[in-house]
Amino acid sequence: KTVARSMAGLSSQKKHNALQAMADALESQASDILQANERDLAAISKEGDKQVYRQAIEQIRMTEESIQVMVDRLLDFVAYPDPVGGMSQAWMTPDGLQVHMVRAPIGVIGVISDMGPLMTVESLGMCVKTNNVCVYRGGTEWLQTNAALFNCLQEAAVKEGVPDGGLVFLDRAAPEAG
Questions:
Q1: pLDDT by residue (tens digit) across 52-87?
Q2: Terminus of the chain with fewer CB atoms < 10 Å: N or C?
Q3: 102 vs 53, which has greater pLDDT?
Q4: CA 14 – CA 161 distance, rounded (Å)
């Protein structure tokens, strides 16, 4: 049985529980995530264009408030109706065949984003809600932050029935200059 099939079989209740557990884990592990973020911020080079430096810092800096935004975003997913299995259209053909358009998981969603840590949380949460495997790769500037977020969220989701391998983080260091 593939991971994508296992994800497709998640019930609404399991997804709800996983998203709630993910939100709770963010709150309980906020200090670890903020420490990882501080390490990422300290590693950003101050040499070169000051505007680029300020933009990089602004994009990835996390605070208690930004953690709360992430928690709220996951709780928003909990509150939304389950999209999987919903029927969007139905009609009957002239020969009497009933046709229904039903929402189903895609299977595997690949996300490559340099948008900042909030995108990590949104991507993982949305894939859990829609029964899709999420393969996530974020920016090199916040590798430690993303790893801390991912580990926190994946552990919580797996404890609530999301298959191991349903959320995948591709960590990568910055390419060596030369």
A1: 778 888 888 999 999 999 999 999 999 999 999 888
A2: C
A3: 102
A4: 6
Minimum mean pLDDT among 6-10, 31-35, 90-94, 171-175: which range? 171-175
Alpha helices by DSSP H, listed for 44-91, are: 50-60, 64-79
Which of these, 61, 68, 62, 78, lies nearest to 28 by C-alpha position? 68
**Opening angle at CA 13, ends 11 and 14, nearest 5:** 65
> Hey, what amino acid is at 153?
L
Average pLDDT of the residues in 17-25: 98
Q: Which long-range contacts (CB under 8 A, 24 or more apart) does 55-60 make?
A: 56/141, 59/115, 59/116, 59/141, 60/116, 60/117, 60/139, 60/141, 60/142, 60/145
